[in-house]
Amino acid sequence: ARTGGGDQVAVFDPAVHAERLANAELVAQMHHAVEAGEFEVHYQPIIDLATGDVAAAEALLRWTRPDGTRIPPDRFIPLAEQGGAITTIGAWVLRQVCTDLRRLWSEHQVAVTVNVSAHQLRDPLFAAHLLSLLDTSAVPGRALIVEITETVLVTSVADAATVTAQLQQLREHGVRIAIDDFGTGYSSLAYLRELPVDILKMDGSFTAHQIDNGGTREIAFIRAILDLSRSLGLVTIAEAVETDTQAHRLRALDCNLAQGYHFAKPGPVADLHTLLHKHSRP
Ligand code: C2E
Ligand code: CA
Ligand code: CA
Ligand code: CA
User: Fold this and answer.
1) Among residues of the chain, what percentage have pLDDT more than 90?
2) Phi first, then psi: what are they for 175, rounded to 5°?
3) ipTM above threshold 0.95
4) Residue among 39, 40, 43, 60 whose CB has most ligand 1 atoms within 8 A, to mutate
5) Which residues form a coiled coil (predicted)?
6) Whose CA is nearest to atom 27 of ligand 1?
7) Letter string b/e over residues 228-259, b meaning 16 or more CB atoms within 10 A of that residue's CB
8) pLDDT greater than 90 at residue 236
9) What end-to-end distance do the CA atoms of the chain give, in Å?
10) Which pTM value belongs to this model?
11) CA gap 159, 164 in Å, rounded
12) Pick the residue with more confidence: 225 or 187?
């Protein structure tokens, strides 16, 4: 049996012990994994529901160990955040994204949205580094979207001020800010008010469970989120769209953009190029 993740384990629990050993091993390997080339950035297309065009793509990190084992990001990102490796890994992701963006933006005007951890934003030089990276790659700020979650504000007041200043600096250069997993946190509305934001990503739980069942109560939640987003002048992206019904209902509700297995799974940048070439063929 597992304990709830607290540190106060009074009795020796072999399962907890094994998990901690496994975690410590992953943390140790993570530090070499960047140089060893074990990470790869995959891209999931984000579709304009009105036209069916690919409007953007989300960068999603993939880690394959030398023995071929794939470690899912939900498993290693939290460990990287605890152990500090997220700074190195996050910087690598941004470099890779800027490299891939050169072609994606110049050939197809496809923007890339990238997940940025709260730890990265607490570095007061984060925005400056990112802007110089874009500059070096000759990619305009407009081509990049930074995705953050509310954890950026679950922090000290001083940190919150740093985070807000970073986001403002990025926006002044055309980089857009998206709030990820909207609707799942404790203070979604509060941080939407506090932070400079352009895009709202409605969490997949709203799409998946609620729309297919088709209950009026369920639809009311989605409609409320879309209305809020619109009245704030934001663009909405629906996540985890898995069925045709979901896509149609979202479109009927005037949701702008959507991503999910129904359209395409995340894949290597080459897959995205293949898809984009197919789309642009007359
Ligand atoms: P997220 O940012 O909410 O990303 C969306 C997740 O939903 C991705 O999982 C994606 O593969 C998955 N997904 C896409 N379409 C569907 C669908 O139709 N149905 C369902 N059920 N899921 C779908 P993934 O790639 O395993 O990433 C998990 C999480 O890891 C991400 O959640 C994000 O929080 C984090 N993550 C991934 N890459 C990075 C990164 O480069 N940096 C940071 N800081 N976090 C990352
Ligand atoms: Ca995301
Ligand atoms: Ca999300
Ligand atoms: Ca998530």
Assistant:
1) 69
2) -70, 135
3) yes
4) 60
5) none
6) 73
7) bbeeeebbbbbbbbbeeebbebbbebebbbbb
8) yes
9) 58
10) 0.93
11) 9
12) 225
